[in-house]
Write a structure and sequence with these properties.
67 residues; mainly alpha; 2 helices
């Protein structure tokens, strides 16, 4: 089971790097870097947007709010 975890983690790290390299080859290093930065920022914004509603449904102690 641990080997499957490491394979998934390796692929999760390798795919963006390979995509960035292919994009740099076709679009240029500066354009590919800007696109990569925008993609990472968009993913981070989506992650933050999904965490904010979940956090607002808990109390200060972290317990879920009873409705």
């Amino acid at each position: 089971m641990a080997s499957a975890f490491f394979i998934v983690m390796y692929v999760a790290i390798a795919l963006p790097v390979l995509g960035e390299g292919i994009a740099a080859t076709h679009l240029g290093l500066r354009t590919a870097g800007i696109a990569f930065r925008l993609a990472v920022g968009a993913i981070a914004a989506i992650a933050l947007a999904t965490l904010i509603p979940a956090r607002s449904r808990t109390t200060a102690t972290g317990a879920p709010v009873r409705t």
